[in-house]
Every structure is written in C-alpha cells, then in structure tokens.
Amino acid sequence: MTERTLVQAVNAAMARAMAEDPAVLVVGEDVGTDGGVFRATEGLLGRFGPQRVIDTPLAEAGIAGLAVGLAAQGFRPVAEIQFTGFIYAALDQVVNHAARLRTRTRGRLTCPLVIRAPTGGGVRAPEHHSESPEAMFAHIPGLRVVVASSPARAFGLLLAAIRDPDPVLFLEPTRLYRAVREEVPDDAPPLPLDRAFVLREGTDATLVAWGGMVPEALAAAEALEKEDVSCEVIDLATLKPLDEETILASVARTGRLVVVQEAPLTAGFGAEVAARVAERGLMSLRAPVRRVTGWDTVMPLLRLEQRYIPSAARIAAAVRDAMAFA
C-alpha cells in the first residue's frame, strides 16, 4: 500500500495508464522537463520519453486543438491546462470539436481525450488562478465533467476518464493537491464515472458538494453531530452526467438539502442540483433547499480569499437554518 497526496495520485494514474496503453500521451505547458506547474507529471518524461510526454507552447487553444486531433487519430491524450483561469482560450476546441466529434461523424470518430486542470482557490494565487468554472463546462453536451476530492478518488476517476471513449474535463482542486495523504495502491481499480459517492450517512440533512468543498462539508457534518444533527454527505464527483438517483434517495431519507459550491452563486451547478430535486423530489423536502456558495464577484486576492470560499461554519449555519423548519 502506498500513501499519496492528491497530486501524487494523479501522477500515478497517468503513469499506470501510459504503461498499460501506448496510445496514452501527455501534452501541455511544462509537462515534460519541469513536470508540470504542480509537478503532476513529474517523472513521466524520463519514463516514457519525449514522444509521449510533449511540452507545448503557451497556447491553450493549441493544446486543446492538438489533443482533439490526436484523439481523432486513435490516441488518448491527457492535456494539462495549468489553471482553469487559462482554459477559456480552449473553449472553441472543446465546444465545437471535442464535444461534437461523435455526433458530427455519426459515430465514425470519437474523441477520447482528457483535459486536466487545477481548479478553485485556497492557495492565495493571483487573479485567473482560482477559477471554478465547472457549471460552464457542464452545460456543454457531449462533455463529461469530473471533479476530484481525495487522492483515492482522483486516482480511480482519472483512470476511468482516460479509458472513456468521449472527452472528459477532469478538475483537480488546487487546495487539496497536498492537503492530505491516503492509501492509493498502484493496482487500485478505476472508479465508476457518472456516480456520486455517499461519504457519510445521515438522517437529518443531505449535504451535496464536490471538489474542494467536500472536506468542508464533512467538517460541517462532524461539527453538527455534536448538536445531535445527523448529516449525510455526498461527493458528486461526476457533475455531468449527474447521478440524480443517489441525491434523490438521500433527500428522501433526510428531507433537507444543502448544496455547497465554491463557484459564485448565480447560475452555478448547485442550482442544477436544486432544480433536479425540485422536479423529482419535491414531496420529500421538509425545508427549502439551501445553497452555500462563493459570492458573485471575481475571487478576491490574498487575505480576503478565505472570506469568499464557503467554510464549514457557513455550511453548518445553512443546515441549522434548514432544521428550523418543521
């Protein structure tokens, strides 16, 4: 058994995928000699060589376009975008080509690529380095959106994403890269995509979170337990397609739902979760759905960043508010 951080688990998943399948390539800025800005690709160049670990120019549109072309020709590229704040230049390639290739060719071609990117705040990075744009990408038909929240889930989900025949955006919370260590064996199996994970069972309220908000939701649940409030915690993991059934089953048990996202409030993915429950689980609810989110502003710099990111205290307050309803 090997203890790994989240970024080490990402590295190990790519190394295993490359060892198992020569069609798997890694491309991106500084992924070769430097091992990536967070060292997620460290050691891969020495092990697999420059024809499979390819340093690119600083051009996100070019990285995504290269990945689409490679995928269309039978490779399985894993493309790194250094920060999600830089990913918008790649939108044209993702929206108009990667996500549409299967439909455009009536199934003759697929686009088995993974785009990896650090996401979210918590490390006091400059502007453009702390974005949480998952809702934007979840709105794109034909694109899977996966967000890791622990070393073990990062390893298993990334393996599954690389093996998937269609494009996957794989987001890795920057604040969790080296936050904890977890046992992640080299031979751990891939984890299922499109399925949420119930991390903690409860009877009074359901907390739904993803990425960097999962530890905060777990901390809130632990604090509320001391107040005799039992919270069930769900890590969505795959936002698109969304595992509605796990959420609905939990809300049927608890009667209350609190959705936690780091992204700004308006049009965030939490609104989608709330809408699905309103459409299919309204009669289970004993209180209005609560959302705990970032604010409708650009992530503030340095010291104010921690006031922006939802905390366990804010989550617990939302649960207490929901519990106040009969």
TrEMBL record:
Coiled coil: none annotated. Pfam families: Transket_pyr, Transketolase_C. Its cofactor is thiamine diphosphate. GO terms for molecular function: oxidoreductase activity. SMART domains: Transket_pyr. It comes from the Bacteria. Keywords: Oxidoreductase, Thiamine pyrophosphate. CDD domains: TPP_PYR_E1-PDHc-beta_like. InterPro entries: THDP-binding (IPR029061), Transketo_C/PFOR_II (IPR009014), Transketolase-like_Pyr-bd (IPR005475), Transketolase_C (IPR033248). Residues 4-179 form the Transketolase-like pyrimidine-binding domain. This is Alpha-ketoacid dehydrogenase subunit beta. It comes from Neoroseomonas soli.
